[in-house]
Amino acid sequence: MIPAPSPSFRRIGPADPVSPVVVSVPHAGRDYPPAMQALLTVPVARLTALEDRHIDAVALGAHGQETMLVAMRPRGWIDLNRSPLRDRDPQVDGGAEPRIAGLSPSDKVRSGIGLIPRRGGGAENMWQRKLTGAEVAERIAEDHAPYHAAVTAALAAAQARFGVAILLDLHSMPPLVGLDPARIVLGDRYGRTAGGRLTDMVAAVVRDHGLPLAINHPYAGGHILSEHARPRANIHALQMEIDRSLYLDAALDRPGRGLNDTVALVRAVLDRMTDFAMDATRRIAAE
Questions:
Q1: pLDDT tens, position by position, 110-149
Q2: What are phi and psi of 32, to 5 degrees?
């Protein structure tokens, strides 16, 4: 008997929302399917750089009453933060040819980190052969689409109960370089996916924790924010990138001594988001 495939993501939290905040953790996956490993040109251990390494430990440590979605499949299998239309790479994806009329390759595709990443583990092409359109379509249908459907459902349920919903899309990043590099980067796609007051409130939390902060540079947010945010409909979305050296060991491989402090930071962000949403809920009720 062929064993059933493991779930591609976990949904954590009650069936009916008790918080207006939803947390997405799309790049935490470490469950590398055998079908993927058989096609790689590099050892799977070298693909950890594509992961938001152990960011799920931060997310789960900070979790309270929020609905949380945590990817189990790795980013190298399919990137949940990429568009299944715009971000298909013809160098690795047979279904990307011919190009859809009017859509040129995105910057992510040109960089080799599209829907199916091409670059990884030090290789310019981490795949032994081009994937067929059917293979990619299966990944979209079984992994990408269900994750986004779950995000949509969670936000809709939160908005239905509270009048307002907020998505925190949680990521981690390699340490940035510079004289005083940001340790946290918040992205709201230049104000398009979250109200300015919400972004300012979360930024204040980060500064209160004494961490250098940047907003929208170099990470402004990706497909998850653009797909799910509807600020005019009271659905806000904010991306948070955390420097991996804050919570991992010196090798950036395993949770380290800074994990608890990073968990506390994310918990404070979630609490501030909740305050923002509940204030908005009261204003809506008073109108």
A1: 999 999 999 999 999 999 999 999 999 999 999 999 999 9
A2: -85, 110
Q: pTM higher than 0.85, yes or no?
A: yes
Based on the structure, what is the number of domains in the chain?
A: 1
End-to-end CA distance of the chain: 59
One-character DSSP codes across 180-224: S--SEEEE-TTTTSS-HHHHHHHHHHHHHTT--EEESSS----HH
In a domain, residue 233? The reply is yes
| Token reading at 141 | 């249908």
CA-nearest of 38, 96, 21 to 266 is: 21
Q: What angle do CA 259, 27, 48 make, to 5 degrees?
A: 75
**Domain residue limits at 174:** 9-80+138-286
Whether residue 81 contacts residue 51, with contact meaning beta carbons closer than 8 Å, is answered with no
Backbone angles phi, psi at 5, to 5 degrees: -65, 145
Q: Looking at the domain assignment, is residue 199 inside a domain?
A: yes
